[in-house]
Amino acid sequence: MLPSKFRELAARYYPETVHFRRHLHQHPELSFQEKNTAAFISEKLSQWGIPHQTGIAGNGIIGLISGQNPKSGCIALRADMDALPITEHARHEYVSLNPGVMHACGHDAHTAMLLTAARILNELRAHFEGSVKLVFQPAEEKLPGGAIGMIEAGVLKNPEVETMIGQHVLPTLEAGKVGFRPGSFMASSDEINIRIYGKGGHAAMPHLLTDTILAASHVVVALQQISSRHAPPLVPTVLSFGAIIGNGAHNVIPDEVFIRGTFRTFDEQWRATAIDLIRSIAMHTAQAAGAQAEVDITDGYPVLVNDEQNTLAAMKAAKEYLGEDQVVTLESRMTAEDFAWYTQYVPACFYRIGTANSAKGITANLHTPEFDIDESMLEQGSGLMAWMAYKRLSTGLNTVNSII
Question: pLDDT (tens digit, 9 = 90+) per residue, 338-358?
């Protein structure tokens, strides 16, 4: 089957894809609260006769499209569906109706495109062998994330997933283009929470108290050696602090100060070593300043590693569908994604799809109140995802080398 058939169906269903995206954009729901979003997805799958399970790891949904000889192999397609606690600054007709909640990361588009990709594949299921598992995942934006919960609930089993594909919008790439990166693509992400404490008091009498503000300052500075002096050469590493909270005053040293930050890298062994160093340096630096430190580090998402052969195969399929000039190779990114959990269990490919339109002024970044997309990419994204799944199944999931 030629990609023209997938383009034809994506174009036919494009108006509804836009409707899906706008409905979801107007009704965003935060992580672990996606009840109405899940109901909307379930309604559409039922309408198209696609069998599915709801309530997976909270509000997750698993659908299954069976082609000919469905047990011959299974590929999974994933979309996340939660929103962010951001107040939208926009005047368009589909602005969020939920105050303080916004789809500022494009998960509405991800869900809309996977719905249409599912519809296309279901219509063409007589033309491929194997099965397509649809993974509508909750809670990507909030630790511990929805991916690990769905994995523990058996999303990769019955039938067993042999490879997985996920996509994410990218506002720095023009609509119509897609970007791939074989190998390590996105960083791990851990949340750092440090409490510096001691006996506070009047700032005019520092000899009678513990200067927790000074101790916290020393801790922040000392921890910069994690990246500058301890990180292995050529291993990207970021340790940044976004909050120092001390409830004191001009002349009051508080009893405690809270420090919050993030640690990111591309090497799991170094990640574990660095976490131990952060604890040790923070505690001993605070002690040297006469204070105490409690260090709580929340394990976040692992490094996202795209399987090289599967990613190269996906790139080839994308070039067939969109054209050579529309497919680019991306740099690694220090941002994180809980799709990384899937890459720990099955060979997977996570790619980015452009949403920018400079001529229309659609350039705002992710996680900002002004974020929006050029909706023309919805047609390309839904058809492309369906085409890549079809190509992988029609050529055989275990014959990657033959299609690169």
Answer: 999 999 999 999 999 999 999
Q: Are strands 60-66 and 52-56 parallel, antiparallel or unpaired?
A: antiparallel
CATH class for the domain made up of 189-301: alpha beta
- Residue 346 tokens read as 């099955």
Question: Beta 304-306 vs 256-265: how paired, if at all?
Answer: unpaired
Q: What is the pLDDT of residues 187-223, one digit of tens each?
A: 999 999 999 999 999 999 999 999 999 999 999 999 9
Q: What are phi and psi of 58, to 5 degrees?
A: 105, -105
Closest CA to 10 of 397, 266, 275, 382: 382
Which residue spans of the chain are classified as CATH 3.40.630.10? Answer: 3-184+303-403
State the fold for domain 3-184+303-403: Aminopeptidase (3.40.630)
Spatial CB neighbours of 30, under 8 Å, sequence gap ≥ 6 = 82, 83, 84, 85, 101, 141, 142
Domain span(s) for CATH 3.30.70.360 in the chain: 189-301
Tell me whether strands 178-180 and 348-356 are parallel, antiparallel or unpaired: antiparallel
Tell whether pTM > 0.90: yes
Q: Which residues are part of the catalytic machinery? A: 82, 140
